[in-house]
């Protein structure tokens, strides 16, 4: 990427990307502070996946594909509140109208070997986080309720803290103003 790329500002003036990226808040570069807060969030998140959920990162991402699939199906009837999602997650295995999710579809989304996905899904089934059968495919299991109630709640609070740090440092406004860098 060339540092000389430009962006048209709100008032149709041409602004140097270098000027935007070097603006400081309280004397510190916005980008490095924002990036630091992001990296610390990711490290903490990864640590919580390992320690709280006792799960390797590939298994966690596979679980996120299953959750994403369920949320996609859930959102077809409109956006939901936190409580409505919690209720639906608790009862999602009873809802038979969802499209079937397979090992192959998860493997394709994550670019992982199908056998790796199969093995990790079966491990998650043993602890009731996921369920699998040939007829209905891969679904959330009864133990996912606990993950949603505890892990998702903590993650939501952590994201709020991250965004507040970005807001206070000025990084959030710069992120919202950014165009795609590789254009």
How would you characterize this protein structure?
It is a single chain. The chain is mainly alpha-helical and 183 residues long. The protein has a domain of 87 residues: Winged helix-like DNA-binding domain superfamily/Winged helix DNA-binding domain (Arc Repressor Mutant, subunit A), CATH 1.10.10.10. The protein contains 8 helices and 6 strands. The strands form 3 sheets. A two-stranded antiparallel sheet has the order 1-2. A two-stranded antiparallel ribbon has the order 3-4. Strands 5-6 form a two-stranded antiparallel sheet. The longest helix is centred in the last third of the chain and has 26 residues. It starts with 5 loop residues before the first strand and ends in a 6-residue tail after the last helix.
Compose a concise summary of this entry:
With 183 residues, the protein is mainly alpha-helical. It has a domain at 56-142: Orthogonal Bundle (Arc Repressor Mutant, subunit A). 61% of the residues lie in helices and 10% in strands.
Classify the beta-strand content into a percent band. 5-15%
Q: CATH first level of the domain at 56-142: which class?
A: Mainly Alpha
Instruction: Spell out the CATH superfamily of the domain at 56-142.
Output: Winged helix-like DNA-binding domain superfamily/Winged helix DNA-binding domain
Order of helices and strands: EEHEEHHHHHEEHH
Q: Biggest sheet: strands side by side, in what order?
A: 1-2
CATH topology of the domain at 56-142: Arc Repressor Mutant, subunit A
Query: What ranges have pLDDT less than 50 throughout 5 or more consecutive residues?
Result: 1-8
Number of strands: 6
CATH architecture of the domain at 56-142: Orthogonal Bundle
User: Which class do the helix and strand fractions yield?
Assistant: mainly alpha
What general form does the structure show?
Answer: globular
Helix proportion range: 55-70%
The residue-averaged pLDDT reads 83
- Alpha carbon gyration radius: 21 Å
N-end to C-end Cα span: 9 Å
Count of alpha and pi helical runs: 8
Largest sheet: 2 strands, antiparallel
